[in-house]
Amino acid sequence: xxxxxxxxxxxxxxxxxxxxxxxxxxxxxxxxxxxxxxxxxxxxxxxxxxxxxxxxxxxxxxxxxxxxxxxxxxxxxxxxxxxxxxxxxxxxxxxxxxxxxxxxxxxxxxxxxxxxxxxxxxxxxxxxxxxxxxxxxxxxxxxxxxxxxxxxxxxxxxxxxxxxxxxxxxxxxxxxxxxxxxxxxxxxxxxxxxxxxxxxxxxxxxxxxxxxxxxxxxxxxxxxxxxxxxxxxxxxxxxxxxxxxxxxxxxxxxxxxxxxxxxxxxxxxxxxxxxxxxxxxxxxxxxxxxxxxxxxxxxxxxxxxxxxxxxxxxxxxxxxxxxxxxxxxxxxxxxxxxxxxxxxxxxxxxxxxxxxxxxxxxxxxxxxxxxxxxxxxxxxxxxxxxxxxxxxxxxxxxx
Length: 399
Known about the structure:
82% of the residues lie in helices and 0% in strands. The protein contains 15 helices and no strands. Helix 4 packs antiparallel against helix 8, helix 10 packs parallel to helix 13 and helix 11 packs across helix 12.
């Protein structure tokens, strides 16, 4: 198999493992509450810290990937990620929870997106959107497959054994996935099938040039506005379902619905963004996200909400696909890793606030409605900003 397709497999497997296990953590909430009496704000705060570290380390991860390649970066951080979950099985106080999420688990999160997607973008210059979508389908499959497995492990073996088993499995799978990854000889992606030869300079703007553009800061602001929803809804949705009387397995199925519908969002948006451009891709994602959040804010009937979970999931998945190819469209590949990592950092600032807001809303109001309403407001502002982005035709004319 050609190196670029092995890289695609490794990238998808990394996405599958990192995000699938991360969002399975919400199934441990009631277990940790029952044993330790910790509030949902405390539990949400741990994942929020991991999201913040994900953005902080993404800026470094993109540069390390350009220098050392994805095998070393993802191999080391993947082992750290697995070790973090293994150690969670022995925690006894909140500070231990925060230390593990802020260090080992945060390291795995910090490199999984920027390294995999930047590497895929370099290998497939003519179809970045579609190949990014295929990579991010791994995330969706992880969201479908791993929460039910986590629920079964908890029910049959207890939460400690479940956590240790998931951590050990994650470390092994992530290291194997990293060994499949490689960078093309040509950083721009041209001549990517070559196994040897000098590296040519990639085309595009430098990071210093990009930092002075309004467009760059608009993308950062938009990432800040939509990322809280992507982090908060999947984290709190299962426990929200349990509050409504669902079993743990039924609550886990809600994540599977998001995962399944997000596959459609990733593939549709990824296939379209190469043709319609980043601006229209963002508009489509924000529109479906707003519809889903509006339903979560206003409706309580769980049967009807399932329909809107699917609509939300489409936008959820699309957002994970649209960012990387849009950055390549607007700025080129010369500093793609550094630019992408910085944009992700602004998103994870918002993403670190969102889960805490969700937990705090429940602890204060005994309801998630205020949190959903706030996320809805953020999404509406993000939709407005996306209208200011250049059209694909404008970009072509400018070049």
